[in-house]
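seq:
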Amino acid sequence: MLKTIGVLILVLFGLATSGLVYAAPADAVNNPARSQADRERDKTSQPSAILNFVGLKPGMRVLDLFAGGGYYTELLSYAVGPDGQVISHTNAVYESTTGEEAANRFKDNRLPNVRRVMTEINQLGLEEASHDVVFMALVYHDVYFTADYWPAVDRDHFFRQIHDSLKPGGILLVIDHSAMADTGMSAAQNLHRIDEVFARQDIESAGFVFDEASEVLRNPDDTRTLSVFDEGIRKKTDRFVYRFTKP
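struct:
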């Protein structure tokens, strides 16, 4: 009996030190393994409210698409727990700017339920009906961004990949910087924003069902005329949060 209790204590200690003993969103955010830099970002990203809105549960499989440095990946990792899995996706462009942050975050198997994947947007290589949630934080507008260094995106194929990778009833969570009304996709080019009405209609037309919006990241003082990288609005943009489901 004492031996069994001892083994159980060791297992629980191992989970705690890896950070994976927590599951509830509030616990994920308060995990002591998180960095001070991430905690500073919490002030403008409101992760507890976002994770609650997604409806994450232990054991879920989540794709963090274009995860950058992995801020949300780590939170998702804690929220789904040791029986869940998070795919932290990146591509060559994101890797060139956020790869060092990601490498430090994931080194020494720090988040054992995370698998890091680097593929390009038109060839994501996703397994069919494999995810409960696809998480897109501040990257949807890149579907409509064009530049010499950014691969041309086949919009229909992109959404087909995402749609097919979700289980029936699965969730697509989209957070993005809001552009001025009636600007469609045009603000994606220079401001890295997108018209939220256009976004909803666009994603619905790709076979997703709009479920609900959250107002937690709204900023009515944002004129939506500045680039999201402008120091006058950086990290303080007006952002929409949409939850869609796959029928």
